[in-house]
Design brief:
By secondary structure, the protein is an alpha/beta fold. About 50% of the residues lie in helices and about 15% in strands. A 7-stranded mixed sheet has the order 3-4-2-5-1-6-7. Strand 3 and strand 4 form a beta hairpin.
């Protein structure tokens, strides 16, 4: 799909952009919101995790950028729609739970800041719009991937609360360090996109965040498919 086809797809289908730092709640809220609105869900973060997973399987150190990029570029990367979720297959394989391993957690922010990796995945992310209306979560969806969408959200929470959530999930994830790396990278840094609605989830339940998100969308005229 070339740029013009991608732009046309974006014009035909609505995109909800949901950004935020690690453990802010955007993944679970995004999935639940997509289900309620009967639209597709995409996790751009899992795409970067898939890139890190591919490099890890090849035994490439995170700091050898040229080799990491070459490794991911040589992979067969394809999108698959299944159960309302658009996923990235790597060489025909869905890495599944391996995407959230301690090893991938340690390397994903370093891999995600590589311009070559972001270039590879940006086209795939934008091409998701051809599938239909969708909600895509990540760190630069409203600022870089779909900057023209009117439906932009930024979910946040205190660092201590996000660390608690990661621990409760049984994951090793230094959220503060990831915040720093994601915010300071030179390409598509984590930020609040222009026009985004910020929701602080620190003291909110998943249901409360979900209700607030849907309420805000309805105020903007977004109705279920």
């Amino acid at each position: 799909m070339d740029d013009k086809e991608t732009e046309a797809a974006g014009e035909r289908h609505r995109v909800i952009a949901m950004d935020g730092p690690a453990a802010s709640g955007k993944s679970v809220v995004g999935r639940r919101a997509a289900e309620r609105l009967r639209i597709l869900f995409v996790s751009s973060g899992e795409m970067y995790r898939a890139a890190a997973w591919r490099a890890a399987r090849a035994g490439i150190p995170w700091d050898v950028e040229a080799e990491v990029v070459a490794c991911v570029r040589s992979a067969d990367l394809r999108l698959e729609q299944r159960d309302g979720w658009i996923r990235l297959l790597v060489d025909g394989q869905d890495p599944g739970e391996e995407l959230h391993s301690a090893e991938v957690n340690r390397g994903v922010s370093q891999v995600a800041k590589m311009p070559g990796i972001r270039e590879i995945l940006l086209g795939l992310q934008r091409s998701c719009a051809r599938w239909g209306d969708l909600l895509m979560e990540g760190r630069d969806i409203g600022s870089v991937v779909f900057p023209e969408t009117p439906y932009k959200f930024y979910l946040d929470a205190s660092e201590s609360e996000r660390a608690r959530r990661r621990e409760a999930q049984g994951q090793e994830d230094a959220v503060g360090e990831r915040d720093r790396m994601d915010s300071e990278r030179s390409v598509a840094p984590l930020c609040v996109a222009a026009g985004a609605i910020v929701i602080d989830t620190t003291s909110m339940s998943i249901e409360e965040v979900l209700d607030e998100l849907v309420r805000r969308l309805r105020q903007q005229g977004f109705t279920s498919a």
